[in-house]
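Render Fibrillin-1 isoform X2 in 3D.
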Amino acid sequence: MNRLRNLAFVLAFSLLTVADCSTGTQMTEATSTSQSGEDNAERNLVALKNTTLPPNPCDAVSCSHGCDVNDDGGAHCTCPVGKELDVDEKTCKDIPIKCPAGYKPNAARSGCVDIDECQQQPPVCGHSCVNTPGSYRCGCPDGYRLHPNGIHCIDINECRINNGGCSDTCYNTPGSFNCKCPRGFQLMAGGKICEQKYKCLGFGCAHNCHQAEVWYEPYCTCNLGYKLAANKKDCVDMNECGFFHRCDTSSGATCVNVVGSYKCVCNEPNKVLSADKLKCELKAQVTCASLGCSNGCDDTRYPPVCTCPNGYRLDTNGRDCSDVDECAEQTHGCTDTCINTAGDYRCECPAGKRLSNDLKTCVSLSHVACPMPTLFRGSVNCTSTSYNPGTICTRSCRTGFALSGPPSIRCQDNGVWTPDIPAQCTDIDECANNNGGCEQTCINFLGQHACACQSGFLLRTDRKHCKDAENPEFTNCPSNIEVNTQLSYATVTWPEVTYTDNVGVVNVVGPQTNEQNFTIGVHKVKITIFDAEGNSALCSFKVHVKDLELPVVSNCPDDINRFVLEGVMVKEVTWPEPTFSDNSGSVTVTDNIPTDNLFPMGEYNVRYQAADPSGNIAVCTFLVNLTRVNCPDLRQPVNGSITCDTSAINPFCEAKCDAGFEFLKSPPEQYVCGADGGWIPTDNVPDCHRTFTPTAAKATFSARYAHVCKDPENDPVFIKQTIMPMFQSQHVQSLQFACINKPCTFTDPVITCREKDTLLTFSSNEDLSGGLDLNAYVNGVLAEVQKQRYDSFFLTLIIPGTPEFFFPPIADLENRKIDVQLSLTCADGQVQIRNKCVKCPPGEPDCPLIQPGLA
């Protein structure tokens, strides 16, 4: 439209000039165009289409944008807003706008607008970005802070500041941290303060509470005589009689359970508890012989007692008898007068009366009867109880007594017994005849006798024979013994055990010698002796083999120092485990190693503790120290460069040569920054040396087939005749670029039948050094072979005349292997490096094949 406006203006100006020259051309409409816009200019152009006009000055200028006509009839180029004429005065260029950092020209290039750096790719910040006028700032999430480069976020180690607020151990983690408590403690609400996990206070033990170490859970115990209930806190009565008591049952003692304890009782009537209340002993031997009875003794019960005849009673001393005064005690029954006599009494009557037959009642003298006959220690049996004349009475004595006097009497008419001879019962001495049937001692009493035993013996149930009742006795029973262990045991010798018995010991149960080996701990030695009656005695003592030897630790590691890369909060650290041994053969090992051997930054004191059953302790301690480390910068190779990636956990770098240069000795594929601050595998970076085109190059092709020649003479001929035409006709064409405008030719192939495969080798006849990228050539050959892998060159080849299923293929896709090797000829002072010739400086250690001085 600018050209249109300019043309309208030029036309108007030209028409005005013509009018002034009086050309005769009508000017009426043309002069009006000086006052109109684009629409009038277009109408004027239509009106003047048959008018002859002068040339437009702008046509000669060739402006790139706009053109204006000068007052002198010339023209000059113009530019839109934001642009200005270049030095050629024809083309327009942007007017340079200088904006402050962080701003850019607006679309009209009339001013500057802010650059939103946060929208740029790749992102300018490692995490979050906030745009600001003329700039921006990077932000980080909680637990991170900006790296000094202002881009990346790095973890804040909260543990370095007041230990993170932790009362014990602080572990830093990416973006946060954790507090950890030692054994036996747990974190309180809030996750920072540790409190003891287990306490006896409030644990609920009924009797006693114990806690070996703060990290062990408390446990309850009960007082003697009680045991823990199922809830492991309450205590219930223990029936010691069911599984443990000290009652000596061999002595006849029986255990009876009581609340919180037990007691021993003796059930045999002739035994009582000993002073220690644990065994039964015979009561003091009480026999009729030992009582010293003045009259008689009753041994039908135990203990036996002294007896007295009728009319007598036992004195308080239990031995003597005293007369009973029946008259004074009013137990006589006499109707008139009572006269006391030794062991008896009699009744008397006044004048004119006489005693009746009951010897107690006084009757008139007119009644005739004999007095009632009596016999001390005997009895009288009469034919009449009225004792009238003619009554006959028979006399007899109690057992143990013998009658002296007439055995019978008769009552006469005058009331007198005849014969009037007194009778009495006298004691029989049974001991005089066969010792009364007693095994040991016989004691005679009035009307009876008793057998007795010597001291240490008791009467058997037949009351005649004696049995041994005295337990054997140890005359020397060793005291408790304490010895120190030698290895895992000790040989202990104790004094000879001696004993005695009233009849002799017939059996000894226990160690047969006074020397034995004992393992570490407390052992109880028991020796029991028996006599022929089965009476026994026990000798027991304790042997305590003490272990005072500490466990032995071997291979306790030295302090371990490890380097940790930036960003790594914890590191797994391992070491050969220390070993512990002990003479007891048993050792318990504890340690404080963190879970999964993950150690935090800083120092950590590792502690192993070994304890044997006796409580002897040995420890192994060492430090694990983790510190930050950075690897030094690698040297830049001459004619090459180093590129590194520091964003990885293990930063790594790669070395490469500039174009036209090559390493004499290949560097590692990567240099990795190791945990010890050194580069792995080395920090040695070789320099790069200039490469040159070889003076000559040959390619050698080899094809190996997993086929063993069955016919070493004919198989190679067939392979040569079959494969080479295929290779030359189908593959050389695709590789023709290597032969520079002529067919590629090859040497006659060599076929070798080997033990496990068949090898075909041939070389190119062409010199491939003429400007080829030899590495590209080799890669091209292999790529082309791979691309054409389905053609007949790699299909199965079968020897003619042989059935396919009887003979394996000579070559197929799975069996073949093609290799291409280049043989270069390099100028003096050069060596072949990866299909290139590289100039090798004199004395270079990586060029052993170059003689010094060749350059």
